[in-house]
């Protein structure tokens, strides 16, 4: 509280200093333009008006010397320059003052802009808003994509997968699973001509982006991780057009329609890399530092990361800001897109950093199953193996992706009970 009061006093002090500076500059302007005061009837004309009249006299009188004309013009230019400089300084000071005020008042103004103020209800009845309003669609962003989405989307939602020739075999397995389940609103973003032709031949809806050097270089030659990082740039237009997007990497097998299992109450709804209730949904991790004596135990909150290969975004401002933040950071440094994705979602605001204010939800780890859960837990538990049928299986933990995807189809679709048994828990 003392620190907060100190910051408040410093802010008030800075406001007073800025106000004094503004007053001094305004006084300088007045001194230049009104050297004899505001109310002197004989000299109430502004410096500009006097110079204008003097110039008129010069033009109408043959008696004025050329030196006098040159001097008056020089004075006029000098005063104009000083006036422009003073205006610039006042504008800069005003901006600094506005920035200083934003920290304390902008949050309140944003809340007021969202709706009328209400009173809090009785204890236990108060629930905060979790669902942000969707944006107003703007078809001018990409009319061609808008037309495609209008034809294939269901309830303004679509599954989007990015693919190039390097992942064609996995894409085939995924498309077969999509058709088997009967999902209609599925779209492949073709990153090269090979995938475009493949989609045409197999009657799969696709979208080929307009030429973009930055995207095309990675899109045509990049591997699984490199292509995965492109999605944060590509998906923005989908959201701007007003569509909810379920992003899917190609190493995913669909066993049910995922849209029947979404909550749609958050900006971001993502599957987890966690493998049990604690790691998937969060837990209190106690850090022990014996040298601290009585205060040796420090409580920390931990959760395993959201998987950036399968997540649902509602078309909201926070969701678009998330894409912008991640895409910007990926363009400036060689970092893993999933790490950046989670840092932007979870890091709180702190000095010199304003966090993303996006609501988020973790998907059910048995419905939206990662391959660690499947191969380390489910296949070894008779009850889970028998009763659990996931919505999707994401082979994200294992490099032999294609073979494990095929085994998932054999087990869950064709009923081959030993289809998963030959694989190790991890990678060899």
TrEMBL record:
Residues 69-110 form a coiled coil. Keywords: Cell wall biogenesis/degradation, Coiled coil, Glycosyltransferase, Golgi apparatus, Membrane, Signal-anchor, Transferase, Transmembrane, Transmembrane helix. It is found in: Golgi apparatus membrane. It holds the Pfam family Nucleotid_trans. Residues 183-405 form the Nucleotide-diphospho-sugar transferase domain. The chain crosses the membrane at residues 16-34. Its EC number is 2.4.2.-. It is a single-pass type II membrane protein. The keyword Glycosyltransferase applies. Belongs to the glycosyltransferase 77 family. This is Glycosyltransferase. The gene is LOC104756280.
